[in-house]
Amino acid sequence: MAEVDTAFFPESKDMPKLSPIQVEGIPIIDLSPMTSQTVSDSSSIEGLVKEIGSACKEWGFFQVINHGVPLTLRQNIEKASKMFFSQTLEEKRKVSRDERCPMGYYDTEHTKNVRDWKEVFDFLAKDPTLVPLTSDEHDDRLTQWTNPSPPYPPHFKDILEEYVGEMKKLSFKLMELIALSLGLEANKFEEFFMKDETSSIRLNHYPPCPYPHLALGVGRHTDPGALTILAQDEVEGLEVKRRADDEWISVKPIPDAYIINLGDIVQVWSNDAYESVEHRVVVNSEKERFSFPFFFFPAHETEVRPLEELINGQSPSKYRPYKWGKYIVHRHNTNFKKQNVENIQIHHYKIA
Ligand SMILES: O=C(O)CCC(=O)C(=O)O
Ligand SMILES: [Fe+2]
């Protein structure tokens, strides 16, 4: 990424601050009541559900510790990811994403039409993954996305698959806690992910940037899925928009913790009880940064709409239903290159 292209520069209102606000920040939640082998008493689960509920309401973001994911798997993925990105551009481009399948290597992503200062490698949780062929709602044809097979580093695919297995387990547990916190049955969300889920893991590499005051690693956005489980390295960069006052708050790295954020689907399912909060990534001129978000996405045929249990006369549905598969295919088509129109966003489905 040697050339500097003005496509990297957002409008001045979205430009990063050089000294971001340092505060206590997003809640840290201990998941041990849920993960310990000897299932603890129901009062500690109740306490945990309350904590999750407040974190979801107040922040839409939290960090988890004692989550049960073995540290060695995270270390393996960090190491493999560094090895992959250290290759020449020519090698990396051999496993590039293309217009037919959006998985693999990619260094020209645009978030809301501004180019991100990063390179990524995307990998499906389920290979192959069934999705609609086009975003046209009248087109019933399906296609399959498949994973690339990078020759380097050795065992890259095994390392990714093992890690993804753990991310899925943790995602199901978190969705149970979120369901309970909304007063729903613990397994309320399970059915949407059991068949044909469309989840994926992304490896992000943010190289040092000579213009950290002008460009962003990822521009402000919300994540489209149900939830995201993010591992970040020790270099700060992620900023979350605080709901209380709309300030950008930097998320301090905690070793072996995972950052959880709700996506647009939970916002819709909960009929706005919970919000998918905006976040972005700032870059710096000295240090490179690596991060690994796992995006927990339901099956393509899922029709996303506010849950029956959460709507009533006083609180009518705030969203028109939409087909998840069509939405995600549309998003993938439009973030592939700079467009002249805004790509699809959840507010397009909001009932005014
Ligand atoms: O790198 C990070 O910390 C966050 C990345 C992110 O928000 C994303 O890829 O959706
Ligand atoms: Fe994100």
TrEMBL record:
Pfam families: 2OG-FeII_Oxy, DIOX_N. Residues 197-298 form the Fe2OG dioxygenase domain. SUPFAM superfamilies: Clavaminate synthase-like. Belongs to the iron/ascorbate-dependent oxidoreductase family. Coiled coil: none annotated. InterPro entries: DIOX_N, IPNS-like_FE2OG_OXY, IPNS-like_sf, Iron_ascorbate_oxido_reductase, Oxoglu/Fe-dep_dioxygenase_dom. Keywords: Iron, Metal-binding, Oxidoreductase. Gene3D superfamilies: B-lactam Antibiotic, Isopenicillin N Synthase, Chain (2.60.120.330). This is Fe2OG dioxygenase domain-containing protein. GO terms for molecular function: metal ion binding; oxidoreductase activity.
